[in-house]
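ENTRY TYPE: protein
WANTED: fold as tokens:
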Amino acid sequence: DGSYYSFNVKFAKEPLLLNIEMTDFIHDGEAVNRPNNAQEIYLERLGSESPMLVKLIMKSIHKQNKREIKHIGSKRFGVQFLLKSIYANNGLLYFHTEIKNTSNIPFDIDYVSFKIVDKKVIKRTAMQEQVLEPLRAQNYVVVVPGKSRDCGYSFGVYYSVFKGNANTWSFGGEYLQTNKPYGEKGRIPVAQFTGEVGYNLHLASDYSQTFHLYGGVSVLGGYETVNWGDKTLPDGSTLHNGDAFIYGGALTLQADFYLSDKIALTANVKERFVFGNTTGHFHTQYGVGVKLIIE
């Protein structure tokens, strides 16, 4: 933490304690917030700024996770880099950045550098460029995982009513859980509980009536919870995405394969679009199921 600590140690042939927790000695001050046996040091690279203060500032910026700058960034091949904010304190600049990887391949970070370059250069003049060397980093990662961890599962129960021309009305409910990648190995669960009402149009079938293809549209509404309502992440960061009531619809393409007059296997592709939340509005689902026919 950027400090030296002094201790008085006495030898004892028969010590009362064999294991000593050093944090008890470091934080033994009662009247002040800082330990009373700490001697703060300063590093040449940080100038007159305390290393402890630098650490607290970076931790606070990372925890608040505010995006003050909305027009500086770059995206290529599924990898996006954003400059979210810049802070200055006592001659030091704090850059708050974020890297997103929507590709299926992990992105390795070799190094990070910052440059101050003239935006407009007059002809026959030398371009001015100043390289800023990073001094400290908070939550620094060397690999940004791909979206392979942005996966999940769903299950639901639906009741269908047949109408004319083999078209159907469907009523049911569904539970959907996705996992948003966080850090190198972490995940943030996002769960949705929804009710759904839809109409399915019969598109095609074979001569033996064992295969049927349907296209459907539905409306849905429900509730979404992020990280099960826990706002604090394992690394101490604050989660700004909150629970919310959601509404929207879905487009479905479903194939039914009848094994008998009472049982059919189904395979479907569904595109859901929901609003009212902050974790994403579109989600593609692939599923299989079993349909029971009750007369």
